[in-house]
# Entry
Amino acid sequence: MSGYASNIVTGLLLFPLIAAVITLPYMVYQYRKVGSIPWLRTLIVYSFVFYMLVAYFMVILPLPEDRTAVVPYAAHPQLVPFNFVKLFLDGTTASLGDPSTWPGLLRDPNVYEAAFNVLLLVPLGMYLRYYFRRTWWQTLIIGFCVTLFYETSQITGLWGVYEHPYRLFDVDDLMLNALGAMVGFWMMGPALRVLPDMRLVNEEAREDGVRASATRRGLSFFVDLLAAQIAAGTVVGVAEALGARAAVESAGAGWGLAVQAVEFAALAAFFAVIPALAHGRTLGQRLLKLRIVRPDASPARWYQIVARYGLLFLLAWAPFALLLGVVDLDPAQTGEMNALAAVAAQHQAGIIWAWLAFMAAWAVTLVVRGVRSAVKKKPFVMLNGLMSNTRVMTEAGVELVRERRAVLDVDEVAALERRIAEDGTPLAELMERAGRAVADEVRAWVPDPAPVVVLSGSGNNGGDGWVAARELAEAGYPVTLVAPDLAERLHAEPARSTAMEAFSDASARNLPLSVLIAPDADVLADAVDRAEAVVDALLGTGFAGDEVREPYASWIRAANRRRFEGGRGKGRGRHRKRTHERGDHERGRRRSLPLKVKDAPFAVAVDVPSGLAAQDGTAARPTFAADMTVTMLAFKPGLTVPVAARWTGAVKLAKLGVDVPALRAQMLDADPSDDA
# Structure
């Protein structure tokens, strides 16, 4: 066991170095992929790296004294399955009928080595199920491949580093290690009920990633500063090798001054010239998907970019230049100084202490503003940004601000759809694209096929739901579509034609799509209880009012009850029942809804949550509570009202392959009297 402990200690000593090496690439990867760095995800990633490091050390350590060492017991691989059982039975004196001999089992090498081989990959199975969301058969394959890599490292002498195998290739290890991965997979099942859902963690990280955090901006600045220093060092090195230093010094100039000029030119190039030419992005900002814009997200002018970073370096350089100037003053020579310098020389210590206090206060305000920005989800604005009238935003944030500014009311959206149809794209095709966009969001949240419920209305919004249901069924998701009537009895077009086509296509191809027509409350509740995702395609942008009619009201309540109170039979007491009947989580004075339960399905609304007025954002009783709203073509006014966020969740725009700004401009040109 001491050998195992020494391997763990070796991993502990080496891990900080590896963590330091991977931190910068990891941060860049997370910012590019997700947009932020959630602490739980980071903790899991680094613990996984540490585990894999220690596990590999367990397999390959201790190393032989030299690369030519011969280890007799490792020369011939052990290829007999369950050989450890035979060795145990041949050598043990323990008896199952004699309890006094049982403690000796734990000291038997064949027993504890087999147990160790199982335990070695138990954490891997847990990571695969929880973090990587792998299925049991994927876990089994990955676990087997990992242990095969371990055993191959041994039989090849650490991939040729040593001339002979120095540890035994044992087929029993392959089986026991793979079993350990499966044990970890099964153990993680009960733990999933209490651990945070990684899908929710990732979704929250994406929402946070829309904002340019202070850490993300600081990292991009560090990357640019490092690149500028490397470029300047390269230029100085090449110039010195070509004899530039001798030429500069022979001309009577100082080489140090020339180096400073090169460094200044590099800073100017990376922080002014490059972003001015690259549409407001330095190299670091391009890497981390940031952009310099005006406060309204419109493109910044080149002189604003130059002013932003010029002021930054001026404000960073001036205090230190002042400090050095005061420190260099000689109080003994005050008679030769001007009045201001003489006063500074006489009060040199006080000025230095005042400078330190000022810089400390500035640092504190910087930290406070950074924390406030992170907690309140507000932009982190610096003085140079205010003076140059610029901001650093994420690319996603810039796009979101511009999309929210291009709001179209309900009548304008209807006119836009008519214009799209006149230009050759029928509304049925837009419906297909809208349904696919919704299905894509469901697949992103529920990556492995799982039950999905689609609540489909009788209008064109319901047609989007039919398409989404068919798309999900094609991907292997068991879909239950809930509709008020048969597809052929729908009155709206193209919803009727689209629904009939989707239903016949699913039937002909035997897709896992079942349809419930006006189900009773128990049947609907059972379907929603089993679902991993619920799609709301009941009411569209045309809804307005205080009450949602039946049966849609009951369907919305069933979805919300599952979201806020859990599945039936999971502890909803009389108090919760009374709370629901009062409608407190439907409409009240609270600015936020109750917290969703642990196992609540992902809720996505099509275009606008049913019950929410697209024009003004008022919520009816009841209103569907969504994690995400996929709105089509353009933002509607009601989706931008702050109070609507409790119902909409994150709002994502599906452009449906239409250049809405250009088309709207054409419509305005064709009708100059339109003030919209």
Summary: The radius of gyration is 33 Å. The mean pLDDT is 86. The longest strand covers residues 452-456. The chain is about 60% helix and 5% strand.
